[in-house]
User: Fold these one by one.
Assistant:
Number 1:
Amino acid sequence: MTETPNLNTEGYDISPEARANVAITTIDKIFNAGRRYSVWPMMFGLACCAIEMISAAAGRYDLARFGMEVLRPSPRQSDLMIVSGTVTKKMLPQIVRLYNQMPDPKYVMAMGACASGGGPFKEGYNVVSGVDKYIPVDVYVPGCPPTPQALLHGLMKIQEKIDTEKHFTNFRDRTKPIEPIPVPILGPDIIDPRDYETIKDGVKSGPLTTVIPAVE
Amino acid sequence: MNFGFGILRGLMVTMGHFIGTFVEDFKWIGKRYYTPEGVAHRSSKNASGIFTVQYPEEKLPVPEEFRFIPFLLYEEGPDGEQQDRCTSCGICAKVCPPQCIWIVRTEDPDTGRPVPEPVEFYIDIDICMNCGYCAEYCPFDAIKMDHQYELASYDRHSAHIYNKEKLSMSVDYYAQIRPTNYRREEDIRIAKEEEKAAKAAARAAAKE
């Protein structure tokens, strides 16, 4: 069991007998304490790291001790996406789509070498070298694969990150929709096939010296 | 008319585990959790009841050959300064399958000869696949695999590209985490030195 965060704000004089019953605190702390113990990961795995993730979720390491036992099969009910394994070019559009479907306070964990930086496949023809090039990643867990305990350490880092968040002082303008991340389409050499014409024109007009802008 | 008995029998297994947990807790009063014996018992084949490792407070002991990110060894000189075992030969960088090691060599500005010590040594731990080839191939026993696995952090480029300073560990640390390996390597080294000394002595004797 992780340590319960001290809800009482420092600097208030509370008598010792009342300490268990009274909490003088900010609403952020209560809110965050609720959120840190109910991080629901999305139930999807990509490669061998997923085996370690399953192991961490099972009885021996037991994610339930962190309030994370509810592995949701739907992105709309999950808070945390554990990108557990090699992100191939074929899988990436699906991952970005799933990320876009998750509701707002959402976290992404890049688990293992492949998801963080490409790992042994970093120059592979069919593998994206790091999922952080396409979606924002909160915590990187190194290892190939990380042991279940290393994964739990990463999850505790996510909890620590949640503890520091301020919901009532840093407002997001909720009248505006969240801009979804455009789903990438990756052809050979991670070139967007929609850019082919531009690239062809560029090649015709001379040697490639300038960066060709992507077509919107 | 045996309908439903299978389900009951199945539930009895669950019930047995549930009761077993309390029986075990009672047998071990206060010693089952957060003690090395408790962890060892719950990891053994005799374990019954709950066997979860209460991770942040207690950790599973890692076997000696467990390998995670590599680290560099240095020996403490007579006045406490670090003497790197690494000679910047670059074999580890060559054999590394995911190519995550980056070494910068240097030359002595006066003589123009290479200095047997890396100026900079980087390992991208987010690329490293923990294969241990670097440790296997290093002819100077200068790079070894660590046991530390709690390395998660919020930023990849500032925290997960380890430089020489972050990678360097003393030989004592290595002897502590891998005692048998350390002993074996030390024995080989001592035997070689003795052989060398014996040869030198023999040569000196032949000269006379």
Number 2:
Amino acid sequence: MPAGSSGTVTSVDDSSRVGRRLSELGVVPGVRVSVIKHAPFGDPVEVRLLRYNLALRKEEAAVVEIDPASTNGRS
Amino acid sequence: MDGASSQKTSPIVALAGNPNAGKTTLFNALTGLRHKVANYPGVTVERRSGRWPLGDAPAELVDLPGLYSLDATSMDEEIARDVLRGSPDSPVRPDAIVAVVDATNLERNLYLITQIIEHETPVVIALTMMDLFEEHGHVIDIEMLSKGLFVPVVPVDARKGTGISELANAVSGVFGKAQQVPAGLTAELSGEGSEVFARYRYISGLVQSAVKHNDVDAHRFSDRVDSVLTHKFWGLLVLLGILLLVFQAIFSWATLPMDLLESGFGALGDGARSVLPAGIFADLIIDGVIAGVGGILVFLPQIILLFVFISILEDTGYMSRAAFLLDRLMSRIGLHGKAFLPLISSFACAIPGIMATRTIEDRRDRLATIMIAPFMSCSARLPVYVLMIAAFFGGQTVFGFVSLGAVIMLGMYLLGIVVAIIVAFILKQTVLKAPTPPFMMELPPYRMPSFRTVLSNVLVRAGLFVRRAGTVILAISIILWALAYFPRSDAAAQPGSETAASTQLENSFAGRLGHAIEPVIEPLGYDWKIGVALIASFAAREVLVSTLSILYNVGGDADETEGLASALREAKRADGSPVWTTLTAVSLMVFFVLAMQCMSTVAIVRRETNSWRWPLFMVAYMTVLAYLGAFLTYQGGRLLGFS
């Protein structure tokens, strides 16, 4: 996802360690996530959700599915 | 136990919460600056506690490590989890828990609360950041939030001191009561599917009814600051500027207090000399204890300054930005972005650097960072570099204007960095092999650093350094002093003589050891005198300079660098060839870049890894690397025709 884009979480694979941790941090279905920026060397990515900013590597973000068309998620 | 009514023991209150929720600020506001800091038994997690005046009976307030959930992923989190769950093996049995919740970040903070309230210990929520929350135009029904969690909720502002007495009353009121779980939460959790999602469903329902958020998510202050500070180009430039400032401070502002300490210890030694009757006891106290411990404490100003900068950068929220900026680079060598700062700190001293690795969650990542931290050229190496450069490269320039000394100094720093990168890479591929741990990290809003938080952090860290390093250094100083003092030779009996000290040293155990290892170090370009100095400097690197001063009869004072430098240049072997060449000097500097010559660091690594395995491994592999490095430098240099 490019900087400035956003979408609503549709699913998180919380059987993996990364997915479990991400969901504990609030990356759960129905939550709106927007991408703020990419770090200087392209990774990690800074996103905003539930009124706070979270940095994560792209590889870690792969366990999350996002519907970019849905803009009415919880923020 | 019913802590409030018990007269014998004061009640224990645990302070828990997410990282960055304002927990430390609240802890400091409740307890003042007097803290007890110890480690939890058997682990290296810090246990910070203080007295909280709670009505008439003061309570012991224990600050738990910050955590996002009770599913622990690090040593720190495991301790906090055990305490909050009331596990049988928990090192602390609190009578109540104060859970810090950041109002501006309510849902994620409440996730932990939904887990804590499932265990028996009663919970009180301290709601922080209310000023910011209201500034953003949000409104909260505290009564409803409290009812939804079966927990008293008290808004507090630790910086202004408001809400503190209300919090104390609320905590006194819950002692002895078992924590209940709201039926709505139990119902959500009894359903099928993810437990985490269920908790968030409950929280979301509660927050939607209790909070009216102002939906204009204003272009926030922190994001505006970050448009520069985490910018692809400007962000890196600012980071570089901050590092320059830190190093400027450490290497120039710290000079004055360091000089004062040094002359203070000198005066103390002279004073002791005039008071104590001459003899072995006076020599032990002055040359062993005062000189040895003084030699380490001289670095305290630099270490304190470094802790001040680390604390400020942490407290403002910048630290996680630095990790964000550099994670890509660090992850290429298999390390976490959070390893960057401990490594940078190690340029001043590996001890604060190694202590700062506690923020790295993954054990293997943390070990790899600890293992390479001593390659960063610390300030104790500077006197060695300075002496070598003054003696053999003074006044020379490259391209007509750049001082050759500066280039060589830079080269030594770079050598340490390059070797550290290679070693980290190898360690992560072999003994510390593991899948890359996740990066996931909150970027908290920027805040003004709190003077109290910074001060308390610095006091605690500096105290630990003095205690931990002080004891080991004291023991090693005495051993090294004895090695150089015994057996007594005739020359030492005539203290007036110019060469008495060096003759004594040559005939001592240390001198004999120097002669014994001469064949081993000869291929590095070193003679027995350098051998003695190497042995002595295994306690602390800068001891090299004072040992050489004694061996070359130029007195032990630090300001006699020029005298020692010319003595080194003029020293001749039996065949008339110079002992020291520029190649010897470079070879010795390379040795100092790579060798583990610091007993304080070994002691700290022992404490931080809780075993002798890692510190001994560190000493062994670094010594091998140092030997190889110096060997290649000297022999390679000769092959290339240098001398």
Number 3:
Amino acid sequence: MSTTTTPAAAKPRLKTSAMIASIAGEGQRTKPAPFGHALVELAKARPEIVGLTADLAKYTDLHIFAQANPDRFYQMGMAEQLLMGAASGLAHEGFMPFVTTYAVFASRRAYDFVHQTIAEENRNVKIACALPGLTSGYGPSHQAAEDLALMRAMPNMVVIDPCDALEIEQAVPAMAAHQGPVYMRLLRGNVPLVLDEYDYKFELGKAKLLRDGADVLVISSGIMTMRALEVAKALEADKVDVAVLHVPTIKPLDTETILAEAGRSGRMVVVAENHTVIGGLGEAVAGTLLRAGVVPSAFRQIGLPDEFLKAGALPTLHDLYGISTDAMVTSIKGWL
Amino acid sequence: MDTTQLGHNVPLTERAYRIRRNAVLMGEVQGQGYIGQALDIADVLAVSYFHALRYRPEDPHWEGRDRFLLSNGHYAIALYAALIEAGIVPAEELETYGSDDSRLPMSGMAAYTPGMEMSGGSLGLGLSIAVGIALGLKRKASDNRVYTLFSDGELDEGSVWEAIMSAAHHKLDNLIGIVDVNNQQADGPSTQVMAFEPLVDKLEAFGWFVQRVDGNDMDAVVAAFDAARDHPEPKPRMIVCDTRMGKGVPFLEAREKNHFIRVDAHEWKLALDALDAGRTA
């Protein structure tokens, strides 16, 4: 797998509300299609793996798997309910389906099928969904602002929100090692590569402290961890010492690590998520702290508002809704 | 044990009688149940479990079994009645039907009951699961089949048509759908709730091998199951079964049709008497 670096000057800032837009920042190191390549690698050792999609193989990187294993790939058509039911049926027969579509379609359109045919029956189905949270400028039809809330409300469902290409590569075999249904938010195309600088290793159900800091504890998942690390670097100039606790597994939540870190006195806790502030990591952490009687000096949420999000270029929207690095820096400085 | 030989000298009509009887006894336990549907589908279940399906009563997960999916989970009372008759569920569990901690909840769920392959209840799920099972059986080069029972009301669900298209697309000749056309769903006659006719023409246009039979005519049902099994074209197969709710209990057959047929407390015994009368007639 090749690692590419885009020269900062070569790529103008995206100004488009296109459905598919890279979330990689200017000049950021990326890796192509980490999910597709990791699945191909894993499938060599696990013949029970099959791939299914609903007319979105190319846009979920499953086409990499389909090209390598044409006889193990099922095109189910643009029919997400069927997609989930058929995945349940294949799992019923002992196979391990990796199912891809967009996060909006898995979580919203096919919810009852995921709930009843996969989660309730505890089938060994792995659901990997592109365009999680606000990673499309196309408007609410393709912005899965509530996917984590929906999926974590489902018994039996494991929920993963990976940060970068390295984490996706490591999460794929971890999903397979877990017996039961898993929902993973998918970053596809040229995916940022960040965590290799932090000697990082994904473990299902484990939160990892990526950097320590005395003033602010940012608890984050997904691409917001990438942002949090940038925020921490930026705030060094202001002598603000920011710790970053990365929580890629939204469910089951690593409450032990979260309580230990949030319980250290004197630090503001900021939960940052690429998701509506309703029902995601922020409220999961808040509930965890309250139930344990852990009260940080302050608790703040960075996330998407409870409204239908606008169409527009991603950088514009991330600034608007406060989840860009610059917007986060401004927010945190204002709270201190 | 080869179940096609199991109790081969017991006529299918007797099997259907016992399935109906089991269902009425379960209805009596709770004082309610989808007894109208159980009575209408008993003949189809008798043919399924005592003519068509391969299974081992003592090993419900036997790899060589044919899969039978109950998409219309509210028909669980009927399937339990058949599973008891088939020896997959012990007869003594009949009296636990719908009670706390029973393996026989009122809506069929995979985790509860031996021989229950899927969790129904949310209507319109079964055929999609069946598509996956049929694909899986083909991957394993298995010659087993997946049968899926669903109701005419489920034809309202768009997902059913997704599965119907997909099964034909994937040439799933190991998938046999059975749709119970009793023309009754929650809000009234199915044809009035959402017109689904001409059903045979629609299904054929979607690429299925389709037969339509009187689902309470045992010989016709047997012939349809045989033809579905033996049909040479690489198409999924559908058996459209026109049935009569309350079949076998004349006073229930005649009662005003309703999704949930009213049965008064004293009538369960009368229903058993009516079944007995029909058995000896």
